[in-house]
């Protein structure tokens, strides 16, 4: 995040003031920023179209999966960020555009963090329904997501404020809040990984209350990979926030390559990963699921586990695990017992 007042430059007579600290990606230039931002703009437009199409198609079939709408919202935020960066490149002296561009770059990815936390909650509830559905854990989860929203609001406010004051004390406070927010978001991005590992280590008391379609272990791998990618990007941004440099003397980690790689490249991979693996099917849970057994019980009541002959399929048939174990065939049978990745 930027702070007001440009080092080595006479500040303008009125706010907003130019940034003092070096920015990740620096101030955009027509070349190469406009071509690169245009490519990402197209990619996010396609991602938004795909996720909205999936959402509308599912709703027409009575298949409710609001995460597709959230990812659509994320893509729209990134489209706005790309448009603002292109506009900033064409108007490099417009500080208001710089502020808006910085805010949109920093804010959008939080939506992906929340989605991964919700996916993790579903996996934990399926593996360990005795505590995954506990009321206290449910309240903690809601409060944590609410705290992410509060941290985001504080981060945005302090970022904007830092451009409108020359007070060193105010800049110090703004920077403290920005560092806290960046660190908090990095923890949020990383949190699904230890939660998934803990879910595997703790012995299960009952069989996995499977949900959605496909291998259960594939859900684990998809979520783990996306969380690892988002953690990489968030940890990088947080790390450089703790190593500020003057605006006129940026470090290598402020380069445009790092900016586009650790921000938009990682995010577009996650967006398209969710399209390709059809998270709307793999992570879907029945409506009105409120307790242990609801995931599979609701599916049975709807008859979704019936085979082509009208009989109830067994577990392997329902979750596509009878065709030669084509996914994860390298896992030994002993690795699929209690406390391991279920079949």
Structural account:
- By secondary structure, the chain is mainly α.
- 63% of the residues lie in helices and 0% in strands.
- It is built from 13 helices and no strands.
- Helix 7 (168-190) runs antiparallel to helix 9 (216-241).
- The longest helix is centred in the N-terminal third of the chain and has 31 residues, at 30-60.
- Mean pLDDT is 85; it is low at 1-11 and 304-343.
List keywords for this structure.
343 residues, mainly alpha
Give a nutshell description of this structure:
This protein has helices at 30-60, 67-90, 95-107, 110-127, 129-132, 135-162, 168-190, 192-201, 216-241, 256-276, 279-282, 294-302, 315-318.
Indicate the mean pLDDT: 85
Q: How many beta-strand runs?
A: 0
Q: What is the overall silhouette?
A: globular
Number of helices: 13
- Elements, N to C (H/E): HHHHHHHHHHHHH
Our Rg estimate from Cα atoms comes to: 23 Å
Structural class: mainly alpha
Kindly state the percentage of residues in helix: 55-70%
Question: Spans of 5+ residues with little confidence (pLDDT < 50)?
Answer: 1-11, 304-343
Amino-to-carboxy terminus distance: 45 Å
Mind summarizing the main beta sheet?
Answer: none
Proportion of beta-strand residues: under 5%
């Amino acid at each position: 995040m930027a702070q007001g007042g440009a080092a080595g430059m006479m500040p303008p007579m009125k706010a907003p003031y130019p940034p003092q600290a070096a920015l990740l990606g620096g101030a955009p230039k027509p070349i190469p920023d406009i071509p690169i931002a245009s490519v990402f703009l197209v990619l996010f437009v396609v991602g938004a179209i795909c996720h909205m199409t999936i959402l509308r198609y599912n709703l027409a079939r009575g298949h409710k999966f609001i995460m597709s709408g959230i990812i659509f919202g994320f893509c729209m935020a990134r489209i706005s960020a790309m448009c603002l960066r292109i506009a900033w490149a064409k108007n490099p002296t417009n500080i208001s555009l710089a502020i808006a561009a910085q805010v949109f770059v920093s804010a959008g990815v939080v939506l992906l963090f929340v989605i991964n936390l919700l996916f993790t909650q579903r996996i934990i509830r399926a593996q360990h329904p005795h505590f995954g559905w506990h009321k206290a854990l449910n309240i903690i989860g809601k409060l944590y997501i609410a705290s992410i929203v509060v941290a985001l609001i504080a981060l945005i406010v302090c970022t904007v404020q830092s451009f409108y004051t020359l007070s060193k004390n105010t800049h110090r406070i703004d920077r403290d809040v920005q560092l806290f927010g960046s660190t908090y978001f990095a923890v949020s991005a990383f949190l699904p990984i230890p939660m998934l590992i803990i879910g595997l280590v703790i012995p299960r008391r009952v069989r996995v209350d499977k949900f959605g379609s496909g291998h259960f272990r594939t859900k684990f791998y998809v979520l783990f990979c996306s969380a690892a990618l988002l953690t990489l990007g968030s940890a990088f941004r947080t790390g450089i926030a703790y190593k500020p440099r003057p605006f006129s003397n940026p470090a290598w980690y402020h380069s445009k390559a790092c900016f586009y790689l650790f921000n938009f490249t990682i995010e577009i991979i996650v967006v398209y990963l969710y399209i390709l693996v059809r998270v709307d099917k793999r992570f879907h849970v029945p409506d009105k699921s409120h307790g242990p057994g609801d995931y599979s019980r609701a599916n049975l009541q709807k008859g979704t586990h019936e085979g082509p002959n009208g009989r109830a399929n067994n577990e392997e048939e329902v979750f596509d695990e009878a065709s030669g174990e084509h996914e994860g065939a390298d896992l030994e049978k002993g690795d699929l017992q209690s406390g391991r990745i279920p079949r």
